[in-house]
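Sequence in, structure out.
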Amino acid sequence: MKSRTNIAFLLASVVCASPSPSQNTLAVVRSSLRTLEVRLDNKEAVGGIQFSLRSTSDVTLETVDRIGRTSGAQWMVASHRANDSTVNVVILGQTQVAFDAGSGSLVRVTFSEREGATALRATLANVMVASPKAESLAVAIIGADWTPSPAVAENSTTRRFSFGQNYPNPFNPSTRISYRLDAPAQVELSVFDMTGREVDRLVDSYQTAGMYQVEWTSTTGGVRPASGTYFARLRVGEEVAVRKMTLMK
């Protein structure tokens, strides 16, 4: 890939639910209670990918993180949330790099479920996969279906923490974010904007059981972000919870 602007993506020509061993595959996988991963299994070099992740109305898509094969600095992941049930993602190399033949996750998307939902689904659409020479590559597309279990509910007895709504909300210029740990754990508390970009990391440490309160002053490096919707994401071990916040000016 010579540059981002040189890639003329063409729509992938193969879409099926049961790919053969020789096919490239792009799949949605539910990796934990509240996270989905998009994974690439490619048999040939891939220079760039574009797709839309869509969910049923009972699923709200929230934040997008680089993981696995895109976690290196040489890869750029740009995301845009069209609405709460669709997120558009473009993955390009910053330099002349490609995904060599292999398998692994590209992005992780956190989500929440509407109470009372019975059958849930996430699918891939508008998939475009290109070789390092900007040639269209065939790819099989696989979605994910699942049925909510009692463990998914916010009041689940298996959850090791509770995560309250920030207060005040809406807020200007600061708000307090509270949570409780029922057992010691590695904790990560971050703030994301509507595009899925992390704008501030408030906590990233191992913490003991107890109540915690963190203030977000809505500034990053001395710069105040634009007013609008933000997401506070709490990760405790492998469990994730997200709260929507509104910054007003």
